[in-house]
Design a protein that fits this description.
mainly alpha; three-stranded antiparallel beta sheet; two-stranded antiparallel ribbon; 16 helices; 11 strands; FtsW/RodA
């Protein structure tokens, strides 16, 4: 908390806030992480795992470095943001380590039986390396962006770069950008990045700067239909362009999640900037139009089919003479059918969470690896099985606190650009969590987004650490006491010489 002291003259002087609370929460987050590693080893063979020391110490050093950077360059920042990010990153590492052990054991058993097995690992080491790089990006962001308003000077350049990198995978060959039907990657040799993760931050900055400049125009009323006040036709242009871009992303990249994310982001920021519900209503109408177009895209249509009724597609749907059969791709091709989709991943994830119940099976005592991509896209269901509904509620509460503290920083800051930037960053974080959690729980169709900080993946981890740095910088500016006016040592006397 910030403290105000007084000097000898009784003038208030701002002092740096005490960071003991933040340090205590960081230590608590590390204790939970190490306990997760320990529980995995104790559940498997009754001993503490070797990875607990290496990965625990590695993450602890990185967390300490991040703490020092915040204490030095953003001393008035919200003390909750960094511990929450370390907590989520840490338990994600523990779960990936737990899944690594089973994957490695399966690989050894299969190879010992004389069969081939493709295994790349351990992925925990890669995730810790990406965590280190993410915290370096976090520190660089705080060092470079001493004033967040610097970003406002380059919003059009940043916006153009954001759109370019968002659309780039859609124009590349599937061999470079494709994965599981969606084209959202760029692969260069053994390295791959997901540019959309960084585009979301660039587009938030662009939207914030654009809406600060056009706020008055967006608030102007055109025609009125009873209680509904529509904006002027020319002011509808930006939202229609964004709507068209989102449809283009949907069509080019087969990426349902990113289309929802970016369109929802822009509509929400419009509402924050203008405080007019009509923009939300228009956005919902355009979303309904996009939902009518989506089934025309084969990959998205398959996602919708497996969402509405996953049972016929458990091993893959095969359409033969207009009738859908439950067959795998190889069998379907042999019978001259059209392979449609595979809902096995979704259903196994649901079974996994159901197995966990309220309290879970305990770390290292379940079978979450039976769900494909249990360490990345479906890591949320892995936590559901081993930590149960209680553990999932704790994770969702941590996400909610990050969003709440971001919104609090947006409300507290006096700069309009910072308000919109912090609000947009918080909303995009919340919407990403909703889209991925809604997908794996069958609330909405499954998408290709990743669970922030938990899931394995370098691009997502880097982008989310930058996101936390932005919120810390804005909260530091919002909470920093205003500089005190310089006082004269003595009172000025007026001498009458008359």
């Amino acid at each position: 908390m910030s403290a105000i002291s007084t000097n000898e003259a009784g003038i208030p002087v701002a002092t740096r806030p005490r960071r003991s609370a933040q340090l205590g929460m960081l230590i608590f987050a590390m204790i939970i992480t190490v306990a997760g590693f320990a529980q995995v080893g104790l559940a498997r063979d009754g001993s503490l795992p070797a990875g607990m020391y290496g990965y625990g110490i590695g993450l602890g050093i990185l967390a300490a470095g991040a703490y020092i950077v915040v204490a030095r360059f953003a001393p008035y920042a919200d003390p909750l943001l960094l511990p929450l990010a370390v907590f989520l990153n840490g338990i994600g590492l523990a779960m990936i380590y737990r899944l690594d052990l089973n994957t490695s054991a399966d690989a050894k058993a299969t190879i010992a039986a004389g069969k081939s097995y493709s295994y790349i690992g351990p992925s925990t080491t890669n995730q810790l390396e990406w965590t280190a790089l993410g915290i370096i990006f976090f520190a660089v962001t705080l060092l470079v962006l001493r004033d967040i308003k610097i970003v406002q000077r380059y919003i059009y350049t940043i916006g153009a770069l954001g759109l370019f990198f968002l659309a780039l995978p859609g124009f590349l060959p599937s061999s470079i950008s494709g994965a599981m039907g969606a084209k959202i990657w760029i692969r260069i040799g053994s390295m791959s990045i997901q540019p959309g993760e960084f585009s979301k931050l660039a587009l938030v900055a662009f939207f914030a700067g654009y809406l600060v400049n056009k706020r008055q125009a967006m608030s102007t009323v055109g025609k009125e239909f009873g209680p509904i006040k529509l904006p002027r036709a020319r002011d509808l242009g930006p939202i229609l362009v964004i709507w068209a871009i989102c449809l283009g992303v949907l069509a080019l990249e087969n990426d349902f999640g990113s289309a929802i994310l970016f369109f929802g982001l822009f509509v929400s920021m419009l509402y924050i900037a203008t405080e007019r519900f009509e923009w939300v209503a228009i956005g919902l109408l355009l979303l309904a139009g996009a939902c009518l177009v989506a089934p025309m895209i084969p990959h998205v249509a398959q996602r919708i089919d497996t969402w509405l009724d996953p049972k016929p597609y458990f091993d893959g749907g095969c359409k033969i003479n207009g009738v859908i059969h439950n067959q795998m791709a190889q069998t379907c091709s042999a019978h001259g059918g059209q392979y449609i989709a595979d809902s096995g991943q979704l259903m196994r994830g649901l079974f996994s969470m159901g197995q966990g119940g309220v309290l879970g099976t305990g770390m290292g005592q379940g079978e979450p690896w039976r769900t494909p991509l249990s360490y990345s896209d479906f890591i949320f269901t892995s936590f559901g099985e081993e930590l149960g509904l209680t553990g999932l509620m704790v994770i969702l509460l941590a996400y909610a606190l990050i969003v709440q503290r971001g919104m609090k920083a947006a409300i507290a800051t006096k700069d309009n650009f910072s308000k919109l930037f912090a609000g947009g960053v918080s909303f995009v974080f919340a919407l990403q969590v909703f889209v991925i959690v809604g997908g794996v729980t069958r609330l909405i169709p499954l998408t290709g987004l990743t669970t922030p900080f938990l899931a394995q993946g370098g691009s997502s981890l880097l982008a989310n650490w930058i996101l936390i740095a932005i919120l810390i910088r804005i909260s530091d500016a919002a909470r920093r006491p205003a500089p005190q006016p310089i006082q004269d040592e003595g009172m000025t006397q007026v001498v009458n010489t008359a």
